[in-house]
Amino acid sequence: xxxxxxxxxxxxxxxxxxxxxxxxxxxxxxxxHAVTLTREPGGTPLAEKFRDLALHExxxxxxxxxxxxxxxxEHLMQVIEPALARGDVVLCDRFTDATFAYQGGGRxxxxxxxxxxERMVQHVPASVLRQPDLTLxxxxxxxxxxxxxxxxxxxxxxxSQPQSFFREVRSAYARRMAEMPKRxxxxxANQSRDAVWHDVLIAVQRAYQA
Length: 210
Ligand code: TYD
Hints:
The chain is an alpha/beta fold. Helix content is 55%, strand content 13%. The chain has eight helices and five strands; from the N terminus they run E-H-E-H-H-E-H-H-E-H-H-E-H. It has a five-stranded parallel beta sheet, sandwiched between helices. Helix 2 (45-56) packs antiparallel against helix 3 (61-86) and helix 3 runs parallel beside helix 5.
């Protein structure tokens, strides 16, 4: 049985990744794996404080990127790295691709500055640059996501952005995938929940056996 594995879940708000994260946690547990289920920004008490700031306070784009990466460093050192060292499957609701998508794409912040922050923050002793082994990108047209979000709870700072913002976020996810195609699986999220789950399992099994 393969030991530690790091899977991130990405997509614009309303893409419907949450139920599949839970499903995949149960699926891995059923196969006898220890699973760490976590999220970004957040995942530790301190990083959750950063999350609260990032999602509810307005700030300039560099500050926002730094808050995301500060939360990430804390989360990586306190939760992700220890879990991978134990041999867990780590399922993380969003990781660095979200910073490239939202701060880089949505906010239009400098891609190269984000890349240098990424190198600094994700440099960990066990690896040159920590990245997910697999990133499931739940891809959905922003207009479909917007319809889904109208019935959701009170929107946070990002969820209340216009569709034009999410078009940029989506393009930035595509750019990240083009830059690192090996770890990405693009899931068509504009299908029934069962069909999406089917595609998730195929992508996971394919990557897991590779
Ligand atoms: P999300 O993951 O969608 O959680 P929930 O299911 O509770 O809505 O919310 C996190 C928000 O933070 C989402 O709108 C994307 C945004 N975000 C960034 O802008 N940059 C980042 O680096 C990360 C991790 C998230």
